Amino acid sequence: MLTKKILLSAALSISALSLTLVSNSSFALSAEEKKGLDISMEAKKRDLGWQDSTADMVMLLRNKQGQESIREIKMKSLEVLDDGDKSLTIFNKPRDVKGTAFLSFSHPVDADDQWLYLPALKRVKRISSRNKSGPFMGSEFAFEDLSSFEVEKYSYKYLGVEELNGLTNFKVEQYPVDENSGYTRRIVWLDTLEYRIHKIDFYDRKNSLLKTLTFSDYKQYLAKHWRADNQEMINHQNGKSTELKWTNYDFKTGLTDSDFNRNSLKRAR
Amino acid sequence: MRDKLYNFVGKNPFWVILVCITFAMVAGMGAQKLEFKSDYRVFFSEENPQLTAFESMQKVYAKSDNVSFVVVPKDGNVFTAEHLAALKKLTKESWQVPYSTRVDSVTNFQYTYAEEDDMIVEDLVMSTRNLTSDKLDKIKQIAISEPLLVNKIISKTGHVSVVNVTVQLPGVDPMAETPEVAASVRAIKAQFLAEHPEVEVYLSGMIMMNTSFGEASINDGTTLIPLMFLVVVITIGLLLRTITGTIATVLVIIMSIVTTMGLAGWLGFYLTGPSSSAPTMILTLAVADCIHILTSMFYEMRQGADKRTAIARSIKINLQPIFLTSITTAIGFLSMNFSDSPPFRDLGNLVAIGVMLAFVFSVTIFPALLTVLPVRVKMQSEGKKDIMAKLADFVIAKRKALLPLTSVLIIASIMLIPNNELNDDFVKYFDETVPYRAATDFMQDNLSGMMVVEISVKTGKSSGINNPQYLHSVSDFTDWLRDRPETDHVNTITDTLKRLNKNMHGDDPSWYKLPDSQEMSAQYLLLYEMSLPYGLDLNNQLDVDKSSSRIVATFKNMTSNELINVEEDMIAWFAQHAPQYEVDFSSPSLMFAHIGQRNIISMLIGTTLALILISILLGVALKSWRFGLISLLPNLAPAAIGFGIWGLYSGQVGLGLSVVIGMTLGIVVDDTVHFLSKYLHARRDKNATPQEAVHYAFDNVGRALWITTFVLVAGFTVLAQSSFKMNADMGFLTALTIFIALIVDFLFLPPLLMLLDKDKKKATQSTGAIVEAPIKKAIEAA
Known about the structure:
The complex is a heterodimer. By secondary structure, chain A is of the alpha+beta class. Chain A has one domain (about 30-265): outer membrane lipoprotein receptor (LolB), chain A (Clam). Helices cover about 20% and strands about 45% of the residues of chain A. Chain A has helices at about 1-15, 15-25, 30-45, 145, 260-265, and strands spanning about 50-60, 70-80, 85-95, 100-105, 115-120, 125, 155-165, 165-175, 185-190, 195-205, 210-220, 225-235, 240-250. Chain A has a 13-stranded antiparallel sheet with strand order 6-5-4-3-2-1-13-12-11-10-9-8-7. The radius of gyration of chain A is 18 Å and the shape is globular. The model of chain A is unreliable at about 1-25 (pLDDT under 50). By secondary structure, chain B is α+β, with helices and mostly antiparallel strands. In chain B, the strands form 4 sheets. In chain B, strands 2-5-1-6 form a 4-stranded antiparallel sheet. A 4-stranded antiparallel sheet of chain B has the order 9-10-8-11. In chain B, strands 3-4 form a two-stranded antiparallel sheet. In chain B, a hairpin with a 2-residue loop joins strand 3 (about 110-115) and strand 4. Chain B starts with a helix and ends with a helix. Residues about 760-780 of chain B have low confidence and may be disordered. Chains A and B meet through strand 2, strand 5 and strand 6 of A and helix 3, strand 4 and helix 18 of B.
C-alpha cells in the first residue's frame, strides 16, 4: 500500500531512472526513513517545472580576522527532468578571472561532469570530478553544496518537527550516497508550509559539526518557485564565513541545451 | 611578641593544631580546581608581540597546530605496494582525529599532470592494487622530486614518510582538547602498528609537544615529589636523629604544599610545566625553617632545659631570623613576576606563598605538635662540632691565602659567564626519555628540523598575489632561502604555479616557470583550486582576498640567536629586493627565540629590584649599612660563579635559567644572614676580635648551614632529574648555586670580614700587633 503510494507520487514527477531507484530502495525503509524520503521528494516535486533560470550572485568571503573578499558571478541553470540539472557559471570578479566560465552537468548518482573555460588560455579544461567536497572559489561552499538537489543523492531519516523563524519545520537527516562527499550527514530544516529549506547543518567525515547554512529573504517566482535572496554559510571549525546574495532572478528565459555545452562556454557572458 | 606567640601555642596546642589543619583543608579543597594547561602558548603573555603576530597570521590563513605520524618501513623503502596501501589507510584514518581539518601525505598529494588537452588533478596514489614496479618507480620519482614534499612529507631517499594532520582546536575546553587529540592519535598508531608490524611509527608535532608538557609534569609529580619526601625524612632522621621532629616537619611541609596549591586553585591559577615544580620547591624550602627550630630546641634540651622551655626559647631565638630568611626568599621568588613568561610568574608567586605559609606553620602548628608529641634527645657525637671548629681554625689560619685564592676563582668564573648563550629550543625542553623528543630527533636526522618560520608577504591589493612581479619576488626569495645551508624546506605557492604552467603546456619541462600575466596566474589557480577536494585547498597558503600569500620555511634545529639572525637576514632581503610588500614573520619557533631575550632583560630589572630590597632588609636586620653592603658580595657571587660553571658545562641559557638568579638570591641570602648575624653578635655583644667572631659564627651556625644547604641541594638535585629539561636545568643550576653559596660563606666571607673589619676594630678597640700583621699581609696579597 505504502509502496504503491510512493510509486504513484514518483511516477507523477520524476524520471524513470529515479523511479526505479527510489522504489527499489524503499522496500526496506523504516517509518522515519520513509517519511524523510517523502518530505524530500515533495520538496523536489514542488519546485519542478522552472525550465531554466538566470540570476546574479555576489559572494562575500570573510575570514576570522575580519578580512573580506568579493566575487561576482552570473548563473544560468537548465532544468533536466531525467537527469541532474545543468548550470553555467560566469565569473565577473575578481577582474583577473573575468570571463572565466564554469559548466556543470550534475548527475543524481554518478560523478558530475565539469568544465572550465580559461579566457587567458582561450581553452576549455575538464575538471576532476573528485573535487565535489572541495571549496568553490575558495569559499566555504563546497561544490556539492551548490549543485542541484536530486532525491537520489541521499538516503533519509525524519527527525521530527521544530520551530524555526516562526515557522514549523520538518527536520530531516540526509546521508550522502557518494563516498566522495565531504560529509557523513546533513540535517535539513524545511518549513511544513512551502517545503523551503531554512537551515542546513553539515557534519564532516568524522561526524563533527562543520558548517551551518541559513537561508533568508525567500521570494516566490512564477507563483511557484521559492528562491532565497540570501544564503549564509558559517564554518564552525575555522571561523570563516561566506555570504551569497542573489539578485535579478529570471525564469523561463528560453535557454536550451545548446546554451550548456563546451562551445557555449567560450561565448558565455 | 615572641614570648606571647609560644605562650599561646604552648597553652592551647590542640586548638592550634585543629585551626591550622582546618585552614589547610579548606584551602586545600581548591586544589581540585587546578588544571594543567597543555599548550606551549602559555609561555607567552597576551601582550607578547610575537604571539600577537602569530595569532593574527593564524586567523588570516589556516591554523597550524598539527600531529605528525612519522612512518618508517623497516625495509627502508616507502614505495612498495603494501607500504603505500598502509599509508593510504593511515591517511584515511587520520581524518577521524578529533578537530582535524587537513591531512597531508604522500598518497593524497594532489598530483597534477597533462592528459591530452586536460589537466588532471588527483591523489598521487589513487589505487594500490596492480601497482607494478614501473608504476611504483614513477610514483617515487614524482614524490622525491616534488619540492612541496621532499624533506617534509617524504625523505630525499624515500625511506621515511610523514602523515601530517592539521588540527583546529576550538579552544572551548583547552584542558580536554589536546589530550583528546593525543589519545585518538595514539589509538590510531597502536592499531596501525598491530596491522603493520613491518613499520615503526613516531609521533611528533605541536599537539604531541603540548601533550608532553602535561605528561612530563605528571610524571614528575608521581616520581620526584615522593623521592623528595624520602630525602627529607632521611636527612632529618639521620642528621637530627628525631622521629617526632621528622613527622612534625613532614606534616608542616605537606600542609604548606596543600594550602599553597589549594589557594592557587581558589585564586584561579592553572598549572603549567614550570609552575608544576612549585610543590618540589616549597617542599625543599619549608624544611629549612623546621631544621632551625629543631636544632635550637635540641641544643636547649641538651643544656638541661625541659621540653616546653626549650621550644619556647627556640621560637624566641629563631622567630626573627626565619621570618627574615622567609621574607628574603619570598622576595627573591616574587622577582619572577618580572618574567615575560606567565608560568614563571605563577611559579614565583606560588613558591612565595608557600614559603610564607611554611613560616607561619613552622611557628604555630610545628611547636604545637612538638609540645604534644613525645620528644627525646639523644646525645650527639662531638665529632661534628670538631669539624666545624677545625674548619674555622683552618679558615682563620689560611685567610691570607684563601681570600686571594677564592677571589681569583670567583673572577675566573665570572669571566666564563660570556660562554653562555641565550637559547630556547622547545624541542630540548624535554630530555631523550620523552617520546616526543625522540620523535623530533629522528625527524631532524631523517627529514627536517623543527624550526619553522611562517612568512606572510602582503600586497594590500585584492588578487595582488597573481601579479607577475609579486610572484617573481616570492620565487626569488624562495630560491635565496633554499640556497642557505640551514634551510630544510620551503613551501610556497610559486612552486605550485610553475607546476601548473608546465601542466598547461603538455607537461613540457621548459614551461616549469611562472606564468607571464596576472590573468594567466589567476586562472590557473582558479582551475587548480576548483579541482581540489575537501581539506586540501589553498587556504593555508593564500588569504581570502588573494592579497597575500604565506611561505612556510623549515630550518635545521638551531639556537635562538641563529634563528633571530636568519629572521634579520630575511627582513633585510625584502628591504633590499621587494620593499613594496609588507612582510610578517611569525611562528612558535620565533616566539621561543625572542622570549629568551625579552625575559633576560625583564628578569635583570626584577632581580636588581629584589637585590636592593633584600639589601635594605639586611641592613636593617643587621643594624649596619656597612655589613649590608659587604653582604652583597657573598650574595651575588654564587649566582655569578654558578653561571660561569654553567658556561663551561652547557652554555645554553633559556627561559628556565633566566629566573635562577632571582630565585637563588633569596635563598643564598639566608646563609649570609645567619653567618653575619652570629658574627656581629660576637663582635658587638661579646667584644670578640674578628677572628674570634668568625670562630663563634662557625661554631654556632656552621652545622645548621650545612644541613639546610644539604637539604636544599638534595631537593633541587631531585628536581634536576625531571624529564622536563626546563625544570631540570633550573633545578641543577639552583642546586649548584646554593652549594657554591655555602662554600663562599665558609671560605670567602670570613677572610673578607677579617680584612675589611680591621679599621672599625682599630677605632673601637685597641688590639695587639698579633692581629694587625697578618691582615696587613692579606691586604698586600690581595
